[in-house]
Amino acid sequence: MPRTLDGQITMEKTPSYFVTKEAPRRIHSMSRDTKLIVVVRDPVTRAISDYTQTLSKNPSIPSFQALAFKNLSTGLIDTSWSAVRIGIYAKHLENWLQFFPLSRFLFVSGERLVSDPAGEMGRVQDFLGLQRLVTDRHFYFNETKGFPCLKKPEGDSKPRCLGKSKGRPHPTIDGQGVQRLRDFYRPFNMKFYQMTGQDFGWD
Fold it and tell me: Where does this protein hold 3'-phosphoadenylyl sulfate (predicted)?
């Protein structure tokens, strides 16, 4: 990371940091004052989204159920599959809390980023000690994509939306399989709520 001068914020965004075992130690050794922002969403939805992205690049991969379950009839989940493993947030957070106190973290709700982007961005700005400049005037809901897009409040420039890879429809997943995944994640979600002091409402 480059040195940060007074009045500057240096940011790096790599989603895999949160689930990479070595990352907390390495980041702590670089700077124990680092502020950590973690965006999380319903782990079941997240796993299906992960699968959807992989499927778009490789249409020949096995079905979601074949990858998510070691045995579909018994409901045994395959936690070695990264799309499932990433959503066990409590396990990953335990690793981070060995190096950073909870006060260094802000947990952002992926669902609220869609339903109330200005509210979540307000929390981010407060956490970083910034003046609240990004407000609800900077967002509008794009019906086609199904999530908010950015605009300049002056209205003199073209709105900016995320690319084609975002907002793509998810494949239909068997309801029983989804329920079994929800049952699997529930205790981990409850533990994550307790650890963070936030109820994300996934259950």
Answer: 41, 49, 166-170
- Binding site residues, as ranges? 41, 49, 166-170
Q: Which domain holds residue 181?
A: 34-196
What are the pLDDT digits (tens) for 40-94? 999 999 999 999 999 989 989 999 999 999 987 788 999 999 999 999 999 999 9
Q: At 141, phi and psi to the nearest 5?
A: -90, 125
Mean pLDDT, consecutive 10-residue stretches, the chain (203 aa), reads: 84 92 96 95 95 91 93 87 97 98 97 93 96 89 80 70 68 86 97 98 90
Task: Kindly state whether residue 43 falls inside one of the protein's structural domains.
Answer: yes
Amino acid at 153: P
Q: CATH number of the domain that 140 lies in?
A: 3.40.50.300
3-state secondary structure of 38: strand
Q: How far is CA 113 from its chain centroid?
A: 10
